[in-house]
Amino acid sequence: MIRVENATKLYGRPDANGTAVHALNGVSLHIGHGEFVAIMGPSGCGKSTLLHVLGGLDVLTSGEIYLDNEPVHQLNEEGLTRLRRSKIGFVFQFFNLLPTLTVEENVRLPGVLQNRPANEFAARSAELLAAVGMEHRAHHRLHQLSGGEMQRAALARALLMEPCVLLADEPTGNLDSEASARIVKLFREIGERHRTTIVMVTHSREVAASAHRIVEMRDGRVVTS
Ligand SMILES: Nc1ncnc2c1ncn2[C@@H]1O[C@H](COP(=O)(O)OP(=O)(O)OP(=O)(O)O)[C@@H](O)[C@H]1O
Ligand SMILES: [Mg+2]
Known about the structure:
Elements: E1 2-11, E2 21-31, E3 36-40, H1 47-54, E4 62-67, E5 70-71, H2 77-87, E6 88-91, H3 103-113, H4 122-131, H5 147-159, E7 165-169, H6 177-194, E8 197-201, H7 205-208, E9 213-218, E10 221-224
Parallel strand pairs: 3-8, 3-9, 6-7, 7-8
Antiparallel strand pairs: 1-2, 1-4, 4-5, 9-10
Helix pairs in contact: 3-5, 4-5
């Protein structure tokens, strides 16, 4: 489902006396259809950068990425937008939720962006909010939520369109161990039910242990996979 070949990402210019960073420094990684992979490694080793380039939110400096056989590294802005909307669910550290909408409206937003009828996803959005333990907050606005609640709302939104790939950057970062366990269990269920391919960055060994495989990164490289 995902194939990364010798990917590099350089931030800044090489001649900019020391400020250039090789966030990815020759990453190769294959992830199968329906596989659930946890990415671990120290702060700054390139985990978020890897998720960004996998999801077409940022472009590689060199190398190749194929997602569901599409050459992500060759797509233009229009192609990347289509890929993101049709195939990928994102759960990122900065949630990209819209503050003026309610939780429920935020969850249904991906459907609205695809010009689908407003009520088409009502039942599914209710089901997802229940699954992440947020049904009692459906009509709250964003500023009325805690960090962990926002994170769970973002997760429900990412799952609305049943993406074939779910990219999650520390999805349990603001959650206690009980809420974390519930989210990870939901990931496993979704993976098994829909064969969703899941790539999850986490700093928690306990959370990572629920994945099928742990990929360790150091200094922009994969050191075990
Ligand atoms: N936009 C940017 N411009 C310049 N350098 C960047 C940029 N984004 C990230 N970096 C650098 O690239 C490296 C990798 O960053 P990345 O965010 O991928 O790390 P990470 O593994 O996700 O860390 P963390 O666990 O702290 O989230 C870091 O050294 C960071 O300082
Ligand atoms: Mg990060």
